[in-house]
Specification:
Layout: E1 22-30, E2 39-44, E3 58-62, E4 70-77, E5 79-87, E6 107-109, H1 122-125, E7 127-129, E8 133-138
């Protein structure tokens, strides 16, 4: 299991390599709020670190390049994973929130979990990687 807190440190390999114990996963994020603002995908594989500051295994940032969706092919170690996604529409390199802590910029979670009053639980957002998989996520605007 990976426990990397910095996106600059070793991360799972991008599609093309396929070491033993990993599977090809394609994450598709649709309904982007902006075709120009960066989309950040935070990958978690430790239940107790889910949505904790720096608790993600790794992060990927993708420019939409004028498209309404982004696609990230990646190899992940087999096991349980969850993804949290944000889109930085004002390009200030952070997820803006209102005075009670609710995000004011688009966000989403794997399994398309839509939290109402509190952040979702890892168990609600997790998916099992044990072979090729496509994960479709719709961004909340």
């Amino acid at each position: 299991m990976l426990a990397v807190s910095s996106p600059l440190v070793a991360t799972p390999s991008i599609a093309g390599d396929n070491p033993a114990g990993t599977s090809s996963v394609t994450v598709i994020v649709s309904a982007l709020a902006s075709t120009k603002s960066v989309v950040k995908l935070y990958f978690y594989n430790v239940r107790d670190k889910f949505l904790q500051h720096g608790g993600y295994a790794f992060m990927r940032a993708i420019q939409p390049g004028g498209q309404q969706q982004v696609t990230l092919p990646i190899n992940l170690p087999n096991g349980e994973w969850a993804v949290a996604i944000t889109q930085d529409t004002n390009n200030n390199d952070k997820l803006d929130k209102n005075f009670v802590g609710i995000p004011t910029e688009p966000y989403a979670f794997s399994n398309n979990v839509r939290p109402k009053l509190a952040a979702p639980d890892f168990n609600d957002c997790k998916f099992v990687v044990s072979g090729p998989k496509v994960v479709n996520i719709v961004l909340n605007k």
